[in-house]
Amino acid sequence: MKEITLGIIKPDAVEKKIIGKVISMIESTHLNFVEIKMVSLTKTTLEELYQEHTGKAFLPELIEFMASGPVLLLLLEGENAVNTLRSLCGDTNPDKALPGTIRRDCGEGLPKNAIHASDSQESAKREINLLFPEHQIV
Ligand code: ADP
Ligand code: MG
């Protein structure tokens, strides 16, 4: 089924100047870019984005990191977009991710794992409505 998904190239990858490498890896799939946008996310927006992690020990460090520099938002579409992007990202922990995945090849550890990817079509809609309000999805 044709889906949309959200990717976020995280501040570690932006700082390392490997945006092009990450985008190139995504372009090796069948996914299409609908829109990309460079932004600095506020802590308020990040608390909303990561609402499912409220109360977890790693959340403050994650929000601090995600607010530490600009990120690149990626709005992607294609068949099975959510799982396609999640598979390409690999395991949350770059040390456990397989070679050839974005997190293994571009990440440094936790929370600096190079990329965020929506985990379901429901999450994708919620995240895209939050971060690309000009693309409201119902
Ligand atoms: P994913 O991004 O694979 O969906 P989670 O939703 O579990 O993973 O976590 C969100 C983000 O929080 C991760 O991508 C990572 O940047 C960070 N994170 C997860 N677990 C930890 C941890 N134990 N310590 C520090 N940061 C973490
Ligand atoms: Mg997640």
UniProtKB/TrEMBL annotation:
Keyword list, A-Z: ATP-binding, Kinase, Magnesium, Metal-binding, Nucleotide metabolism, Nucleotide-binding, Transferase
CDD domains: NDPk_I
InterPro entries registered for this protein in UniProt: NDK-like_dom, NDK-like_dom_sf, Nucleoside_diP_kinase
Catalytic center residues: H116
Keyword Transcription regulation belongs to the record: no
A Gene Ontology BP annotation from the UniProt entry: GTP biosynthetic process
Superkingdom of this protein's organism: Bacteria
Amino acids binding ATP: K10, F58, R86, T92, R103, N113
Record SUPFAM superfamilies: Nucleoside diphosphate kinase, NDK
Molecular function (Gene Ontology), one example: ATP binding
EC number(s) stated in the UniProt entry for this protein: 2.7.4.6
Domain Nucleoside diphosphate kinase-like: 2-138
Similarity field: Belongs to the NDK family.
Name of the featured protein: Nucleoside diphosphate kinase
